[in-house]
Amino acid sequence: QQQVKQSPQSLIVQKGGISIINCAYENTAFDYFPWYQQFPGKGPALLIAIRPDVSEKKEGRFTISFNKSAKQFSLHIMDSQPGDSATYFCAAANNFGNEKLTFGTGTRLTIIP
Amino acid sequence: DAGITQSPRYKITETGRQVTLMCHQTWSHSYMFWYRQDLGHGLRLIYYSAAADITDKGEVPDGYVVSRSKTENFPLTLESATRSQTSVYFCASSAVYEQYFGPGTRLTVT
Description:
With 113 residues, chain A is mainly beta. Chain A has strands at residues 4-7, 10-14, 19-25, 30-38, 45-50, 56-59, 62-67, 72-77, 86-94, 102-103, 107-112.
């Protein structure tokens, strides 16, 4: 049962362009939405996260946009750089306090010169 | 060194053998997790633990056993390895929802 659907599976963006990855969820009890970044051979690492009381959060070139009514959230990477090439996972957690995250299936992002 | 470590980093085992993957964290985080990562499936939760001696099943627990006698350790045992358990296994610990992942163990079952 896929509770968090992520798209696209892979994405190629030119250097300097905007990378956009989308996620949709079903469980309205989710109240924490992080994005993780994973480089080859490494474990995932938290990139940026948002709670549903705001519609957007920006950290440097990375922005999360959140649409509560549509149950969707997305990651935007502005001025994409070759160093951003990695796999990105969206995730969601509910408010039951057990700190479990439900992950999307991942997006492999490649930034080309 | 502070952080979360996994051992071994690579393991090849035969079908039917028992194998244990180790996970150790130095932050004293209450929560710890085991995931497997497979192409097309992302990260799937195998087991998690809220504290020492408290464990619970995740999405794909069949064929796996965990224990947590000490806060800092969370070993994962495959009781009788199968080829379908060939995967990359990640351990994580968390504080206030942010999960910190180990470097992973690449397990191959032949």
